[in-house]
């Protein structure tokens, strides 16, 4: 039979086929309880083609370099055009499923009549006869079904459904060319082993693209379509043998039709199946970077931009065929994973988590935790795995977080500098502080607590004179409580909120006097994004994980950073200068990443949790450590974490080293960037009564010569330079910020 190639010819052939089919089967159909005139009208009066909903396709998550690290799907499918499918694959599917595909107009009249007669006489469906176009119709109806009832109706084995398929098939043939129909069929068909469409099947079965399928591979896939479950090679050896039998059947049929020679068929049949089964994991549990994946997943499900309802957003994630370009940096991520794994075991009840953020963009570069992501064996709550995204807040799959401790002193420091405080300025502090007056929340309500007694934590100093810098370096609780009262509790809270600070559980911040001591439970990502603001000289950027959305049709939507200037750049420079001293003079002294860095330790009361938050102009990170069973019930005292025992875990003893190692690894290929020096005309010249005498007495008690040089201010007061000026690696003695070497200095007498 000559092939019909024109639309007009197809229409004539379709109408003729319909009339012939109706005329031939009318008596039989009538006997089966279907009026013959109805049957004829049903076929010859064509409906519009069936509505084609977009096929479910895989949504891919790729890192900043474009490499995929996770995917979501309800059906593992990636649609391709007909020219992206190998010629043997196109020929094989037509040969075995519908040899007269290019000759009929939607109905294989001979096959359909034969099947109808056999089925009617049997009183039900006993024999196939569907053309490839009819099979496409069936798959379209199943794909668009929104309920089990609709799905069952589209698949029920009945004569009435066959008539519906026939009508729609004729309508489709009027709408599309043969190659367009074949393309749609190859993309919608199920091949087994969870692979929908020829591209997914080629990758799943053989690890190749559809365009590279060989004759033997194509014959195997074509043979699988008819019985995808009984030929599923992932199910076992029996199914593989059935698949090989089906492959050989397809090869014989292709030789019979003249598509290949008998010798080619024999050569292909003599070869093994050559399966190279490739796993296609879906969801975050099987992702290389599960915590980042979980963050992106929650970001999509909570964002109305991806759909009106959560169900709509879930459907788009699982079926939309999106490519989501993320901010994940595999170098930073691996560095964070490695640093945590080296010190905290997955089996420990103590957990470490880290988030890394790029200053100036808010790009999340890494999210890491000490436990593996997933459920524990036997459904246990505590074990080596967790389903909590420990580096993020509850809105992004995280837990309740841990109290942030002394990292919050950064916000009080920034508030003080913004209000005119100067380097060297401070006051004498008592050995115990009672917040009995002077504290008002942002609603104007006094929140004093006369019953509370604040002490400096062990190892962080006693009472006495503290300057702004010294109080920060030594992390003096009492100094910062007094400083918070001086500059205003509400103003400190406003500073923190401007830098994105909110509780991990999404609740209202506790506006209490101990706010500066970090009594609010936080997650590492929120803290990292906050301190990144200072690395960006006062520009706060909301954490962002997705930078571009690519639709299945190639349309691209870029997502820009959401940033705002929240801190005066000069104030940020001053904060950076003070916090740089934490590494040279303070609680992190002796630990360095080999480049300019600033940060703050956080050790909570009774060692319930420990933190370190730090940054460079290029990258910021925050590390938290606490017990997953509950930080108050299980403080970090006398604990063994990893292969080390700790009398108590402080910010500098575990979170600090994790931060150092991870930052070194993350920045290994990034040139070092200096902080902008502070404006000494604005921030220099402060004075702390009694500090000189205290430092002199301390020097005398130690019996050493600690201070080679002293700084003389404009009033003639002398201050030991080590406690005021830092940061110039070119001179071990001079640590000036904006002064020429030697200016304003004199050797100790």
The gist of it:
With 749 residues, the chain is α+β, with helices and mostly antiparallel strands. It is built from 24 helices and 25 strands.
N- to C-terminal distance: 113 Å
The named CATH superfamily of the domain at 79-270:
Biosynthetic peptidoglycan transglycosylase-like
Q: Going across the major beta sheet, what is the strand order?
A: 2-1-5-15-16
Low-confidence runs of at least 5 consecutive residues: 1-43, 124-128, 704-749
The top-level CATH class of the domain at 79-270 is Mainly Alpha
CATH topology of the domain at 79-270: Penicillin binding protein transpeptidase fold
* Mean pLDDT across all amino acids: 85
Q: What level of helicity do the residues show?
A: 25-40%
Q: Which class do the helix and strand fractions yield?
A: alpha+beta
Shape descriptor = elongated
Radius of gyration: 36 Å
Number of strands: 25
Q: Which CATH-level-2 architecture of the domain at 79-270? A: Orthogonal Bundle
- Give me the number of helical elements: 24
GO biological process, one term: regulation of cell shape
InterPro entries: Beta-lactam/transpept-like, Glyco_trans_51, Glycosyltr_51/Transpeptidase, Lysozyme-like_dom_sf, PBP_transglycosylase, PCN-bd_Tpept
Family: In the C-terminal section; belongs to the transpeptidase family.
Domain Glycosyl transferase family: 66-254
């Amino acid at each position: 039979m000559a092939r019909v190639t024109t639309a007009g010819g197809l229409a004539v052939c379709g109408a003729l086929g319909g009339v012939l089919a109706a005329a031939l089967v009318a008596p039989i159909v009538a006997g089966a309880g279907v009026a013959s005139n109805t049957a004829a009208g049903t076929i010859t009066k064509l409906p519009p083609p069936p509505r084609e909903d977009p096929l479910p396709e895989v949504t891919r998550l790729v890192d900043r370099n474009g490499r995929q690290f996770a995917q979501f799907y309800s059906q593992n499918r990636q649609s391709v055009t007909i020219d992206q499918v190998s010629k043997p694959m196109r020929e094989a599917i037509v040969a075995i499923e519908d040899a007269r595909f290019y000759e009929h107009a939607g109905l294989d009249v001979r096959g359909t009549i034969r099947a109808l007669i056999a089925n009617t006489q049997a009183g039900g469906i006993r024999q196939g006869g569907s053309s490839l176009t009819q099979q496409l119709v069936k798959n379209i109806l199943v794909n668009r079904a929104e309920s089990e009832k609709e799905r069952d109706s589209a698949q029920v084995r009945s004569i009435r459904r066959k008539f519906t398929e026939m009508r729609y098939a004729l309508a489709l043939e009027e709408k599309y060319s043969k190659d367009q129909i074949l393309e749609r069929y190859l993309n919608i068909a199920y091949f087994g082993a969870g692979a929908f469409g020829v591209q997914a099947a080629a990758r799943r079965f053989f690890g190749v693209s559809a365009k590279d399928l060989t004759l033997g591979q194509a014959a195997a896939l074509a043979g699988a379509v008819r019985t995808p479950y009984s030929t599923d090679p992932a199910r076992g050896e029996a199914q593989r043998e059935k698949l090989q039998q089906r492959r050989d059947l397809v090869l014989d049929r292709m030789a019979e039709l003249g598509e290949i020679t008998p010798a080619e068929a024999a050569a292909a049949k003599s070869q093994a199946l050559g399966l190279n089964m490739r796993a296609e994991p879906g969801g975050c549990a099987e992702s290389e970077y599960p915590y980042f994946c979980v963050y992106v997943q929650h970001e999509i499900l909570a964002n109305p931009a991806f759909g009106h309802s959560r169900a709509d957003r879930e459907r788009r994630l699982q079926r939309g065929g999106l490519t989501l370009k993320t901010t994940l940096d595999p170098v930073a991520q691996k560095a964070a994973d490695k640093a945590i794994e080296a010190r905290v075991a997955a089996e420990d009840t103590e957990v470490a988590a880290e988030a890394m953020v790029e200053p100036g963009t808010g790009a999340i570069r890494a999210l890491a935790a000490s436990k593996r992501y997933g459920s524990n064996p036997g459904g246990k709550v505590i074990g080596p795995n967790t389903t909590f995204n420990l580096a993020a807040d509850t809105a992004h799959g995280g837990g309740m977080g841990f109290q942030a401790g002394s990292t919050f002193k950064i916000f009080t420091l920034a508030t003080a500098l913004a209000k005119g405080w100067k380097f060297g300025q401070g006051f004498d502090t008592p050995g115990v502080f009672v917040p009995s007056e002077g504290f008002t929340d942002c609603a104007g309500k006094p929140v004093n607590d006369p019953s509370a007694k604040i002490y400096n934590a062990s190892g962080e100093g006693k009472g006495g004179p503290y300057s702004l810098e010294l109080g920060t370096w030594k992390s003096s609780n009492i100094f910062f409580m007094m400083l918070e009262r001086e500059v205003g509790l509400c103003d400190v809270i406003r500073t923190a909120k401007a830098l994105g600070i909110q509780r991990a559980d999404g609740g209202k911040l506790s506006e209490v006097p101990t706010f500066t001591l970090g009594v609010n439970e936080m997650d590492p990502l929120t803290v990292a994004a906050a301190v990144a603001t200072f690395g960006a000289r006062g520009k706060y950027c909301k954490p962002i994980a997705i930078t571009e959305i690519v639709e299945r049709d190639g349309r691209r939507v870029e997502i820009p950073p959401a940033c705002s200037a929240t801190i005066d750049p000069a104030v940020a420079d001053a904060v950076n200068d003070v916090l740089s001293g934490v590494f040279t003079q303070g609680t992190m002294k002796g630990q360095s990443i080999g480049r300019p860095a600033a940060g703050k330790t956080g050790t909570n009361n009774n060692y319930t949790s420990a933190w370190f938050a730090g940054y460079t102009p290029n990258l910021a990170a925050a590390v938290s450590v606490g017990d997953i069973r509950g930080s108050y019930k299980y403080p970090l005292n006398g604990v063994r974490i990893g292969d080390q025992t700790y009398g108590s875990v402080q910010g500098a003893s575990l979170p600090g080293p994790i931060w150092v190692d991870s930052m070194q690894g993350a920045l290994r290929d990034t040139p070092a960037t200096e902080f902008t020096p502070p404006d000494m005309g604005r921030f220099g010249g402060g004075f702390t009564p009694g500090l000189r005498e205290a430092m002199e007495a301390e020097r005398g008690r130690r019996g050493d010569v600690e201070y080679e040089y002293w700084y003389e201010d404009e009033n003639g007061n002398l201050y030991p330079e080590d406690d005021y000026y830092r940061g110039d690696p070119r001179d071990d003695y001079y640590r000036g910020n904006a002064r020429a070497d030697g200016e304003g200095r004199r050797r100790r007498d």
